[in-house]
Amino acid sequence: MTKDGTQNAKDLTHLLSPEAKSRQNSPLKDAFKYYKLPNMTFLGGGLPLSDYFPFNRVSADIPTPSFPNGIGAPLTEESKTTIEVFKKADQNKPNEIELARSLQYGYTEGQPELTAFLKEHTEMIHKIPYKDWDLVASVGNTESWDSTLRTFCARGDSILVEEYSFSSALETANGQGINTVPVPMDDYGIIPSGLETLLSNWIGNKPKLLYTISTGQNPTGSSLSAERRKQIYEIACKYDFIIIEDEPYYFLQMETYTKDKKAREGKTVHEHKEFIKALVPSFISLDTEGRVIRLDSFSKVLAPGLRLGWIVGQEKLLERYVRLHEVSIQCPSGLTQSMTNALLQSWGQKGYLDWLIGLRAEYTHKRDVAIDALEEYCPKEVTSYVPPVAGMFFTVNIDASKHPKFHELGEDPLKIESLLYEQSIKQGTLMIPGSWFKSQGQSTPPQRNLPQNPAAKTHIFFRGTYAAVPLDQLVFGLQKFGKAVKIEFGLD
Which residues belong to any copy of the Aminotransferase class I/classII large domain (predicted)? Predict the structure, then answer.
């Protein structure tokens, strides 16, 4: 415990990879602490003179909180704010990042003004229960995940992943020679008892990491409840592994779906305290030992092309990320940091929460339209669904055993999946087969006597999104998918 009674994180540096442990501080980077000090002539770095940067000013029109016309509405003179960032510091407003600095080398951890805003935001939302936590900037969660694997794993190591997971995340591990071990899931995410069984029967070195997209999971759309998160965290403490919570969809949480359209009215959250209270507790908000690494991103709440995210965790572990970033990404894009920071400083914490609340309302409506269409167009004889409570995705579960050719095709649900995929393309809509997201790894050495999910032998699912198209196209697309199911299963 610290003097003020706040607990420090547990020392988990034994879980670092040999690569991470071997990284040394860069003497060149250490020298940058003298950059721009008064009376210091800095001749030690290969820094081009900012006079030669061809960007003197960048500006953008952004919506003004509290977004009275709704987010996504066309900007008018009354509803817009113009943000400007200049090359020279004295031309800028307080807490803005001048271009002469952001376009230069330096600040691997992220520009101080931006990271200070994110730390305040993190404290407001998550209230991390130990003292020595920090965050560092990243180039979005894809890079954060790649750096995480390099920081903790070596070729031949095993990690735990959800039974169905983001295919690019699985391939990142595969490319580094890391074995991915599936953890059983149901419609509500990881099954804690299945995780416990997996680990209690493990032979050999235990995995160091559990990778989970715990809110609005990609691809299933499932979200872990607060109770399941607590159970999973307790298992992590028991078996001494780190939880990697990949949370780009965390703020796309919604009200529970209801078929009663009148009951949906008036449920929109407006108050900041109410919005924050309604969020499911994150893993890092439960983390008393410092064994959660949180991957956050602006990709789903501002724009994917910003390529800007941040990694939250205990200081000792994040320091190793910084050493890796110094020789890989260097730092996120300077233009991105300057402009994103200018937007956030213009909005302030309250305005940013207003934006997130607006997103919640938009995605809730899109989810409702999608599930209404599933209810209307997908045949209940062979399909089912669990309405998501977060994220951008929904899944349609299909009982392949009811297909007329199931026995003829060797009772192979993947062949039914292929037929349905081709039929849906023929009808003019694209849904992604669930098998594309299947975690294929197995532990080395194998576990003993693990239970199997009997439904997996006959059930398939397709993933869709309500985020990518206008609402009329969303409904029409699901109507065409429903028709494809009816044709394939002889229900048309």
Answer: 70-406
